[in-house]
Amino acid sequence: MKKTGLLIDSVKGETALSILNELDLVDRRFKVGRTKSKLRIPLARRPNVLELELIETRLGKFSTAEDEYEPHPEKPESLEEALELLPPEARASLPRAFDIIGDLAIVELAPETMAYQSLIAHALMTVHTNVKASTPKRDQSRVKKESDH
Length: 149
Fold this sequence. Notes:
There is one protein chain. By secondary structure, the protein is an alpha+beta fold. The protein has 2 domains: 2-68, Alpha-Beta Plaits, CATH 3.30.70; 79-140, 2-Layer Sandwich (GMP Synthetase, Chain A, domain 3), CATH 3.30.300. The chain has 5 helices and 7 strands. Strand 5 and strand 6 (104-107) form a beta hairpin. The protein is elongated and about 65 Å long. The mean pLDDT is 88.
């Protein structure tokens, strides 16, 4: 999508993003672009004269230009939304709760959903970006205690 962006030397990119975030100017719906030596930061609106002066004072030389920006993909809000294409009987049995320990999700799956285990794991990692892996909860009746040996 074509929109106004700020062009700045890559070495000043982190500072530029910080300043633009303070001014609520970054359009987070779009990805920051990059050329060999410049960053292209999508703007939510055109900066006013005072904002332009502040940016120039803190960053030095920069420019603005109309350019094409790639939108960020829409992230589903819930596990149900991420798995809306599953059959109704599987959707009805989706886990309502799960445990997260660090970056691991432990999920208790109903028998109807076992065939969709990898899809459910992927959906969990999409919805909860802090989760890097998922494992099904083991049946506690089959786990032997050390004292049972």
